[in-house]
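The following block was generated as part of the benchmark described in Methods. Ligand: FE2/S2 (inorganic) cluster.
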Amino acid sequence: MAATTTAPTVPADLDALVRVGPRDELAPVTVVSGGRHGIAVFAVAGGERVYAVDNRCPHMGFPLHKGSVRDGILTCHWHHARFDLASGGTFDQFADDVQTYAVVNDDGIVYVDPRSHRADRVDHAKERLRDGLEQSINLVLAKNVLALLEAGVAPAEVLAIGGAFGARYREAGWRSGLTILTAMGNILPRLDPDDRVFALYHGLVNVARDCAGQPPRHPLDSLPEAATPPDRLKAWFRQFVEVRDSDGAERALLTAVTNDPAPAVLADLLASAGTDHAFLDGGHTLDFVNKARELLDLIGWEHAAAILPSLTPVLAASRRSEELNSWRHPVDLIALLDPVFARLDDLAARAGADPAWHASDEFIATLHGDDPAAIVAALTTALEVGAPPTAVTRAVSYAAALRVARFHTSNEFGDWITVLHTFTYANATHQLMRRSPSAALLRGVYHGALSLYLDRFLNMPAARLSHERPAGLETLPVEPGALLAH
Ligand code: FES
C-alpha cells in the first residue's frame, strides 16, 4: 500500500483522489471522506510515511482513527485487534484484514485514492470463510458469507466450501453439522434472498462446531488401476464396511468415484452398505448417506471425491441395531425379517406392478400398531401386490411423521428425538428409493417400520392434531383473569 514517497506519483485521474493536505502539516491522524465508512489517514514519523485504512474496524466497527499506532501496528481499542498499518493484515483472527487505500504525494500534497484496490475481494472472502471454519469464529463466518453473497457468488459455492471443510476436518466423518448445512442448502430457494445469508451462516456454524478440536481426516487415493468393474467395487465396499475397515472402504469408494458413474450408482453403493445392518446408529447413518447425496445434488457431483469419503468412518463404526436388546427381545425383530430378506429380489421384481396402489388408513393403522409380525406382513403384501416401492416408503414416512405430530409436549425431549430419528430414517429411505431404487434398499423400509413399532409408547398420551381439537384459539377468553381461570 500506502506510504508516500519522495518522488511524486501523480495518476492521470487526480480528480478521483481525496485531498488530505500538505504533507509537512499532517496531523498524526486525519479522517477524510471515501470508502464505505470514511478513511483514516495516519502520518507516521512527522509525515515521513503516510498510510490510509478504512475507518471502520473490520471486527465490530470501532472507528479506527481512535486507535493507537506503535511500531507500525494499529491497535483498535474496542477488543484490541491489531493490524499491520502498511498492509491492513490483522494479527488477530477474530477480526479481519482492514481495507487499505493508496496514498499519493503530489508535489508535497497528500491524496488518498478512495477506490478499493483489493482486486481479489471474492478470493479474500473465501479464504476468510475457511479461516472462520478452521477457528470456529462465528463473526468471521457471518461477515464473509455476507460478502460473498453481496459479490454475487452463488450459494452453492458457499455450500461447497463448507461441505469440503466438514468432510475433511473431522476424522470421525460426517456429522450433524454437515446435515444441517445440507438442510439449509435445501431450503435456500424458498427463502427471501435477504434471509439466505442466515441459513448459510447457521449451517456453517454447525460445521465449524463439529470440527473444532477434532483431528482431520487424511484422505486416501483411489486404487492405481481404476478399471475394476462397478459390481466388484460395490461388493468390496460392503465387505469392508462389514468388517469395519474404513480405509479399505474409502479406497473402494474413491475408485468407484474415479470411474465416474451416474450419481444413482454411487448412492446405491452407499445405501446398500447403509442397510446391510438394521437401523445403523439409531437411524443417523442412512440419513447421513442421503444428506451427502443431497449436498452433492446442490453443489455438483464433481465434488464426490471430497464429500463421500466422510461417510466411510461413519458406516464402519455405526452401532448395528441387531446388537440391541430392544430389537431382539421380547420379540426378535431381526428373526422376523430373515425370511422376508431371503426373498428381497422376488419382492423387488413384483413391486411396482400396480402404480395405483396407495396406503389405506388401515395400512397406516397397522404401521402404528403393536404387532410387529402384522407390520412386516403388511409391507410384504403391499410389495407382493405391486405397490411401487416409493409408495411404500412414502407411507412409512407419513406414519413416522404422524408419530412426531402426535408427540405430546409433556413427554421427555429425548423421546421426541427418538421419534424424530425414525422419521428422518424413513424419509432418507424414501428419498434414496426415489433416486436409486434397489432390492437392498427395501430392507430400509422394514427397518424404519420396525423402529416405528418400537416407538409406539412414545405417543402416550398422544397429542391431538389441530383438526381433532374441540375448539380453536379464537374461542379462548381474552381477559387475563378469565384466561388464567380457563
Ligand atoms: S471493534 Fe475493533 S477489535 Fe472489536
